[in-house]
Amino acid sequence: MKNIKYIAILLTVLLTTACINKSDNQTQNNDQNSFVSTEWIAINSQPALNIDRYLTAMEVLGFSGAIVVSDSDEVVLSKGYGYANREKRQPYTPQTVQSSGSITKQFTGAAILLLESRGVLSVNDTISKYFDQFSEEMQNITIHQLLTHSSGMPGGIGADEEAIGEPAYLDRLVAESLQSNPGSEYAYSNTGYSLLAMIIEQVTGQSYEKFLREELLLPAGMKYTGYILPDWDLDELAIGYRNGEHWGIVYERGWIDDGPNWHLRGNGGIHTTVRDMAKWFKTVQGLGVLGEDVVERWTTGYVTENGGVSNYGYGWSVYDHDRWGKVITHSGSNRIFEADFVWLPEKDLFFYIHGNSSMVSAANQSGNILAAVFDSTFVMPPLVEPDTSAKHDIAQQREGVYYLNESSLELTADDARLMAKLWGQTVFDKMFKHDDEQIKWFTELNRRTTDVMNKLKAGQDDALADLMRQGEDPIEPTSAILKRISQIGNLDSLHVIGTFVNNPDSRFSEYGPWTTFIYAEFANWNQYWNFVWNDDGTFQGEYSGPWPSFTLIPTDNDSYTGVRQDGNWETVELEIRGDCIILMESKACKE
Asked: Could you say which DSSP state residue 386 is in?
């Protein structure tokens, strides 16, 4: 297919000053403060080559960010992709600064354990030792419970951008009720980590950031990590983009005189570079100011989360994977800036990735990155050759809804790319290249699903009965959906958007051959449901997943290659001429 290269590429890298020789490696291993300052790919490292191949393709599909990868304790990849600032065409580099989001929590956990190792506090201390204004039900909450999200404290009490100081924050938190009994269950709580930052400031007599910088960050060589103390050039900060539009930076957004407000301090928003996070990894390994015994307690999972899949530690999520062994990780996000820290001790692999676009999540790349390294059957995204002269303003002019019969494609500009959101079976048939037999069958599946949606909206407790295999009980799967509808409340409508084939390696292919996508529209919330079908046309299960969409990459004048960001990476060629999309000899046009 034109403009797409499926061949494997042996990368030739412009190393300039990034050429690491044996003595450089020895220096790096002996001095954690020395590090390669430019982009680096170790061409003898298959993990590095595979990850770079994957992210190079994803860059064309809209990923912008940077990554650092360590394999067997050696940095094998340190590189930026896409633009940190689209308006200035400023590329991402390993030294680009951005918010790490909730990865901040691991710094807070490390600070608490460092103070405990010095005899200043104990994780078994109750908050009544440090605060006297909390209610009786709250005063016996322990530092351990704050660290493990088992305190029962609310998740948050205000927006990240509200410039709220410590006294006002505490007054508001004290007035809140516990969400659960302390120690009884896991419930993610940013307020708990803000309290931990207050405790750190109280016992040290320093600001949270100053203590971190002097006792943890600078000893690790991390000069470019913090809130306001690093000597950044503001041009080094990445700009965030939400739904393709300029959003700005987290830095100083609703901040107060000494740094971030208390909705953020201690639980999120620390800024860093991938270079610095490679240095931080040494601390996580027990090669920094924290002893190995302290690191073991820091990175142990204590409280069950994610339905039993993982356990939460002191700023870490920890679980065992059937192929990768133990995984120690944490992500961070404000749904624009995202980051992910992933360490596989048994595989001796670490990477830290961050990015600046809501359209292509940086944190969501981690699963595919690991598959690219360890799974020989993983299908790489296609390498599409974009038209490098394509402009954002042209993409903006082409935004809008294009109609084809009762179906449509909604285009949203993302730099020079267009994101195409599909609605309706006719468009599904064109974009997914369904044959006549499939088109007929999918019409029937849509009809049956529509009948079920009407029953669900009416609250019928066996609404799924007509979709089930003979003898299967429809009550349990129906009740799960009805419970969700009840919990969200104020259901407006249930739209059957269309059905598509689950091609090999696609998101739902392991569950069944076809998926019908449903848009559940509530007054104050929306949900996406995916009904997956068995081979015999009966209901297999309901799963969450994104709205079916394609990234349209400009390749030549009015021509685009559409790529679906799914495991199978389906592609389609189309053109946009005037107010119409030319697709498989059909026209979808603006009204």
From this structure: -
